[in-house]
C-alpha cells in the first residue's frame, strides 16, 4: 500500500455519516496487466449500485477486492468504517490474518456466477454451515435458514440436494446462504449468467425484493432492464476505470462516454 493510500485510509471523525462502502484509488494487477486502475466509489447504506461494462473491464475483480478475495495492489476498501483486509497502525497499513479477514467477510455476503453449493449436503445443511461455523447455535441457524428459504420462494425444500433443484432454485439457495450471516452488504457477480433464460426472472425477483427491503448491494450484471428498474446508481467500467457513473435514467438513456454508448447499443 502506498503512503498516500495509508494516509487516506487513516480513520478521521466524519463531518457527516460516511458511505457504507468507501473505495479509494483501488488498483489491481495480474502480472503486467492492470485490471483496476484507480477506482474511487462510494455506496451508501440501503443503495443498489449496478456495475456495467464489457468483459475484462474489471467488474468482477472489483467485487472480489471488496471482500478481499483479491488483494489490492494499491488503494483501499472500507466497509462500515472498517478497512477490509488491513489495519492502520503507526502510519502504515498491515495485512490482517486470515481469521480476521474471515470475520470481516461474514458481514459481506457474496453470490457468484456459479452456485458453489456443496453437492453432498442438503439445502438446509448448505445454509446453516456458515452460521454454525461462526458460533451461531444450530437450532437458531436452522430457524433462520427455514425463514430464508421461505423468503426466496423455496419453503419446504430443506431436505433437497442441489442436484434435485433447477439452476434458478440453486441460485436462490446460494442467496439464502449468503443472507444467513445477516450481512450489511451483498455482492452479486453476474448471478444470472449461468442460468437458462427462462430461469433468470425468478432470481432477479429475489434480488428486487432484497432491494425493496433496504439491503445495500453491489451487482454486476448485463440485465439492463433490471439495472434500470432497481439501481440507484449505475457505474460503467472500461479498462479498469470508471468512465461513467450516475442515475440509471442518465447513464442508460443518454450516456456521455463513447464506450458506454457503444456497449449499451450492443446489449440493447
Q: Can you offer a commentary on this structure?
A:
With 268 residues, the chain is of the alpha/beta class. The protein folds into two domains: 3-107 and 183-267, 3-Layer(aba) Sandwich (Rossmann fold); 115-182, no CATH class. Helix content is 37%, strand content 25%. The chain has helices at residues 3-9, 59-66, 98-105, 123-133, 138-151, 167-179, 197-212, 224-230, 248-251, 258-267; strands at 21-30, 33-43, 48-52, 74-79, 82-83, 86-89, 92-95, 108-111, 185-189, 216-220, 233-238, 241-246. The strands form three sheets. It has a six-stranded mixed beta sheet, with helices on both faces. A four-stranded antiparallel beta sheet has the order 2-1-4-5. Strands 6-7 form a two-stranded antiparallel sheet. Strand 11 (233-238) and strand 12 (241-246) form a beta hairpin. It is globular, with a radius of gyration of 19 Å. The model has no long low-confidence stretch (mean pLDDT 92).
The shape is: globular
Number of helical stretches of at least 4 residues? 10
CATH class wording of the largest domain: Alpha Beta
Domains counted in the coordinates: how many?
Answer: 2
Give a brief rundown of this model.
By secondary structure, the chain is an alpha/beta fold. 37% of the residues lie in helices and 25% in strands.
Short descriptors:
four-stranded antiparallel beta sheet, 25% strand, 10 helices, Rossmann fold, alpha/beta, 12 strands, six-stranded mixed beta sheet, 2 domains, single chain, 268 residues
Helices, strands, pairings?
Layout (H helix, E strand, L loop, with lengths): L2 H7 L11 E10 L2 E11 L4 E5 L6 H8 L7 E6 L2 E2 L2 E4 L2 E4 L2 H8 L2 E4 L11 H11 L4 H14 L15 H13 L5 E5 L7 H16 L3 E5 L3 H7 L2 E6 L2 E6 L1 H4 L6 H10 L1
Helix pairs in contact: 4-5, 4-6, 5-6, 6-7
Amino acid at each position: 500500500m502506498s503512503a498516500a493510500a495509508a494516509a487516506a485510509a487513516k480513520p478521521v471523525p466524519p463531518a457527516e455519516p460516511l458511505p457504507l462502502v468507501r473505495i479509494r484509488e483501488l488498483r489491481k494487477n495480474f502480472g503486467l496487466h492492470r485490471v483496476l486502475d484507480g477506482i474511487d466509489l462510494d455506496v451508501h447504506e440501503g443503495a443498489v449500485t449496478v456495475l456495467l461494462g464489457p468483459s475484462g473491464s474489471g467488474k468482477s475483480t472489483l467485487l472480489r477486492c471488496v471482500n478481499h478475495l483479491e488483494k489490492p495492489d494499491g488503494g483501499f476498501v472500507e466497509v462500515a468504517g472498517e478497512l477490509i483486509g488491513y489495519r492502520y497502525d503507526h502510519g502504515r497499513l498491515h495485512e490482517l490474518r486470515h481469521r480476521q479477514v474471515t470475520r470481516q467477510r461474514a458481514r459481506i455476503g457474496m453470490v457468484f456466477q456459479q452456485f458453489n453449493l456443496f453437492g453432498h449436503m442438503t439445502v438446509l445443511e448448505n445454509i446453516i454451515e456458515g452460521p454454525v461455523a461462526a458460533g451461531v447455535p444450530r437450532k437458531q441457524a436452522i430457524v433462520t435458514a427455514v425463514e430464508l428459504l421461505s423468503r426466496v420462494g423455496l419453503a419446504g425444500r430443506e431436505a433437497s440436494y442441489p442436484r434435485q433443484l433447477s439452476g434458478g432454485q440453486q441460485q436462490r439457495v446460494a442467496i439464502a446462504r449468503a443472507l444467513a450471516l445477516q450481512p450489511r452488504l451483498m455482492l452479486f457477480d453476474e448471478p444470472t449468467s449461468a442460468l437458462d433464460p427462462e430461469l433468470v426472472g425468478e432470481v432477479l425477483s429475489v434480488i428486487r425484493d432484497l432491494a425493496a427491503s433496504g439491503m445495500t448491494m453491489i451487482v454486476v450484471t448485463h440485465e439492463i432492464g433490471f439495472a434500470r428498474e432497481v439501481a440507484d446508481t449505475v457505474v460503467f467500467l472500461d479498462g479498469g476505470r470508471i468512465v461513467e457513473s450516475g442515475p440509471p435514467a442518465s447513464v442508460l438513456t443518454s450516456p456521455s462516454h463513447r464506450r458506454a454508448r457503444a456497449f449499451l447499443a450492443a446489449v440493447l
